[in-house]
Amino acid sequence: MFVAEGLPAVLFARPGRPTPISFVDLDHDKGAALAAERLVDRGCRKIATISGPPAVLAAQDREKGFRQAMAQHGWPYIPVAVGNFTRESGELAMRRLLRDHPDLDGVFVANDLMAEGALQVLHDHGRRVPDDVAVIGFDDSLPARQSEPGLTTIAQPLEKMSAEMARLLLARIADPTIQPTSVIFAPQLVVRESA
After folding, report:
1. pTM of structure
2. Please, what sign has the CA dihedral across residues 54, 57, 58, 62?
3. Distances, alpha carbon 60 to alpha carbons 7, 138, 184, 191, in Å
Protein backbone atom coordinates (compact mmCIF):
# COMPACT_ATOMS: atom_id res chain seq x y z
CA MET A 1 0.00 0.00 0.00
CA PHE A 2 2.73 2.49 0.96
CA VAL A 3 4.75 1.67 -2.15
CA ALA A 4 1.74 1.86 -4.50
CA GLU A 5 0.72 5.23 -3.03
CA GLY A 6 4.26 6.58 -3.05
CA LEU A 7 4.13 7.24 0.69
CA PRO A 8 7.40 7.38 2.64
CA ALA A 9 7.68 4.33 4.88
CA VAL A 10 10.21 2.04 6.54
CA LEU A 11 9.42 -1.47 7.72
CA PHE A 12 10.61 -3.09 10.92
CA ALA A 13 11.51 -6.53 9.51
CA ARG A 14 12.12 -7.83 6.05
CA PRO A 15 8.99 -7.86 3.89
CA GLY A 16 7.43 -11.22 3.11
CA ARG A 17 8.04 -10.79 -0.61
CA PRO A 18 10.45 -8.59 -2.56
CA THR A 19 9.13 -5.04 -2.25
CA PRO A 20 10.87 -1.74 -3.08
CA ILE A 21 10.68 -0.38 0.45
CA SER A 22 13.37 0.30 3.06
CA PHE A 23 13.52 -1.96 6.07
CA VAL A 24 15.47 -2.52 9.26
CA ASP A 25 15.88 -6.02 10.62
CA LEU A 26 18.04 -8.30 12.74
CA ASP A 27 20.26 -11.11 11.52
CA HIS A 28 17.96 -13.75 13.02
CA ASP A 29 19.98 -16.65 11.58
CA LYS A 30 23.11 -15.42 13.33
CA GLY A 31 21.23 -14.92 16.61
CA ALA A 32 19.99 -18.49 16.52
CA ALA A 33 23.51 -19.68 15.71
CA LEU A 34 24.76 -17.85 18.84
CA ALA A 35 22.20 -19.82 20.86
CA ALA A 36 23.35 -23.09 19.29
CA GLU A 37 26.98 -22.28 20.09
CA ARG A 38 26.10 -21.54 23.70
CA LEU A 39 24.23 -24.82 24.19
CA VAL A 40 27.02 -26.84 22.55
CA ASP A 41 29.69 -25.03 24.58
CA ARG A 42 27.77 -25.87 27.78
CA GLY A 43 28.02 -29.55 26.86
CA CYS A 44 24.34 -30.14 26.06
CA ARG A 45 23.87 -33.40 24.16
CA LYS A 46 20.08 -33.74 23.81
CA ILE A 47 19.02 -30.43 22.28
CA ALA A 48 15.61 -29.36 20.99
CA THR A 49 13.96 -26.14 19.87
CA ILE A 50 10.64 -24.39 20.24
CA SER A 51 10.06 -22.47 17.03
CA GLY A 52 7.75 -19.58 16.29
CA PRO A 53 4.85 -19.55 13.82
CA PRO A 54 5.95 -20.99 10.45
CA ALA A 55 4.35 -18.11 8.54
CA VAL A 56 6.55 -15.51 10.29
CA LEU A 57 9.84 -14.82 8.47
CA ALA A 58 11.76 -14.12 11.68
CA ALA A 59 10.60 -17.48 13.09
CA GLN A 60 11.68 -19.24 9.90
CA ASP A 61 15.10 -17.56 10.01
CA ARG A 62 15.62 -18.39 13.68
CA GLU A 63 14.79 -22.06 13.19
CA LYS A 64 16.90 -22.28 10.02
CA GLY A 65 19.88 -20.57 11.66
CA PHE A 66 19.66 -22.84 14.69
CA ARG A 67 19.40 -26.01 12.58
CA GLN A 68 22.32 -24.97 10.36
CA ALA A 69 24.55 -24.17 13.32
CA MET A 70 23.69 -27.45 15.00
CA ALA A 71 24.37 -29.35 11.76
CA GLN A 72 27.82 -27.78 11.67
CA HIS A 73 28.40 -29.36 15.09
CA GLY A 74 27.28 -32.79 13.89
CA TRP A 75 23.58 -32.74 14.76
CA PRO A 76 21.66 -33.56 11.57
CA TYR A 77 18.30 -33.54 13.35
CA ILE A 78 16.92 -31.32 16.08
CA PRO A 79 13.45 -32.05 17.54
CA VAL A 80 11.10 -29.09 17.22
CA ALA A 81 7.80 -28.10 18.80
CA VAL A 82 6.00 -25.18 17.19
CA GLY A 83 4.64 -22.27 19.22
CA ASN A 84 3.05 -18.95 18.32
CA PHE A 85 5.19 -16.50 20.34
CA THR A 86 2.90 -16.61 23.41
CA ARG A 87 3.72 -17.85 26.91
CA GLU A 88 0.94 -20.44 26.69
CA SER A 89 2.26 -21.86 23.41
CA GLY A 90 5.70 -22.15 25.03
CA GLU A 91 4.16 -24.17 27.84
CA LEU A 92 2.39 -26.50 25.41
CA ALA A 93 5.48 -26.91 23.26
CA MET A 94 7.69 -27.69 26.27
CA ARG A 95 5.20 -30.31 27.47
CA ARG A 96 5.31 -31.96 24.02
CA LEU A 97 9.12 -31.93 24.00
CA LEU A 98 9.33 -33.46 27.48
CA ARG A 99 6.80 -36.12 26.54
CA ASP A 100 8.63 -37.07 23.33
CA HIS A 101 12.22 -36.38 24.49
CA PRO A 102 12.30 -36.76 28.28
CA ASP A 103 16.10 -36.77 28.34
CA LEU A 104 16.56 -33.39 26.65
CA ASP A 105 19.14 -31.15 28.28
CA GLY A 106 19.11 -28.01 26.14
CA VAL A 107 16.36 -25.94 24.49
CA PHE A 108 16.50 -22.95 22.19
CA VAL A 109 13.20 -21.05 22.28
CA ALA A 110 12.40 -18.61 19.46
CA ASN A 111 11.24 -15.81 21.78
CA ASP A 112 11.35 -14.89 25.45
CA LEU A 113 7.62 -15.20 26.12
CA MET A 114 7.60 -18.81 24.98
CA ALA A 115 10.80 -19.40 26.95
CA GLU A 116 9.06 -18.07 30.06
CA GLY A 117 6.34 -20.69 29.52
CA ALA A 118 8.95 -23.39 28.95
CA LEU A 119 10.72 -22.46 32.19
CA GLN A 120 7.45 -22.85 34.10
CA VAL A 121 6.82 -26.31 32.66
CA LEU A 122 10.36 -27.42 33.43
CA HIS A 123 9.91 -26.20 37.01
CA ASP A 124 6.58 -28.02 37.29
CA HIS A 125 8.28 -31.23 36.11
CA GLY A 126 11.07 -30.90 38.66
CA ARG A 127 13.71 -30.15 36.03
CA ARG A 128 16.36 -27.74 37.28
CA VAL A 129 17.47 -24.93 34.96
CA PRO A 130 20.28 -24.89 33.94
CA ASP A 131 21.54 -28.00 35.79
CA ASP A 132 19.15 -30.44 34.09
CA VAL A 133 18.04 -28.35 31.09
CA ALA A 134 19.68 -25.21 29.72
CA VAL A 135 17.23 -22.74 28.15
CA ILE A 136 17.93 -19.88 25.76
CA GLY A 137 15.33 -17.40 24.52
CA PHE A 138 15.34 -14.65 21.91
CA ASP A 139 14.68 -10.88 22.06
CA ASP A 140 16.02 -9.85 25.50
CA SER A 141 12.57 -8.58 26.41
CA LEU A 142 11.17 -7.87 29.87
CA PRO A 143 10.26 -11.54 30.53
CA ALA A 144 13.94 -12.47 30.06
CA ARG A 145 15.03 -10.03 32.72
CA GLN A 146 12.24 -10.94 35.16
CA SER A 147 12.20 -14.72 34.79
CA GLU A 148 13.47 -17.06 37.47
CA PRO A 149 16.17 -18.01 36.75
CA GLY A 150 17.24 -15.08 34.61
CA LEU A 151 16.92 -16.05 30.95
CA THR A 152 19.94 -16.27 28.70
CA THR A 153 18.74 -14.77 25.44
CA ILE A 154 19.62 -13.19 22.13
CA ALA A 155 19.31 -9.40 22.23
CA GLN A 156 18.06 -7.13 19.49
CA PRO A 157 19.39 -3.55 19.70
CA LEU A 158 15.86 -2.12 19.50
CA GLU A 159 16.80 1.47 20.29
CA LYS A 160 19.43 1.54 17.55
CA MET A 161 17.07 -0.20 15.15
CA SER A 162 14.31 2.32 15.88
CA ALA A 163 16.70 5.23 15.45
CA GLU A 164 17.82 3.83 12.10
CA MET A 165 14.20 3.46 10.99
CA ALA A 166 13.58 7.11 11.87
CA ARG A 167 16.74 8.18 10.01
CA LEU A 168 15.73 6.25 6.89
CA LEU A 169 12.20 7.64 7.01
CA LEU A 170 13.38 11.22 7.39
CA ALA A 171 15.81 10.74 4.50
CA ARG A 172 12.97 9.41 2.33
CA ILE A 173 10.72 12.35 3.28
CA ALA A 174 13.51 14.80 2.44
CA ASP A 175 14.22 13.09 -0.89
CA PRO A 176 11.38 10.95 -2.30
CA THR A 177 13.68 9.73 -5.10
CA ILE A 178 16.12 8.07 -2.70
CA GLN A 179 16.51 4.34 -3.34
CA PRO A 180 15.13 1.91 -0.75
CA THR A 181 17.73 0.34 1.48
CA SER A 182 17.99 -2.39 4.06
CA VAL A 183 19.90 -2.27 7.34
CA ILE A 184 20.55 -5.53 9.15
CA PHE A 185 21.70 -5.36 12.77
CA ALA A 186 23.86 -7.92 14.55
CA PRO A 187 22.36 -9.83 17.50
CA GLN A 188 24.14 -10.32 20.81
CA LEU A 189 24.12 -13.20 23.27
CA VAL A 190 23.11 -12.05 26.76
CA VAL A 191 24.19 -14.66 29.32
CA ARG A 192 22.11 -15.04 32.46
CA GLU A 193 21.47 -18.00 34.74
CA SER A 194 19.36 -20.25 32.46
CA ALA A 195 22.23 -21.29 30.18
Report:
1. 0.92
2. positive
3. 29, 13, 16, 24
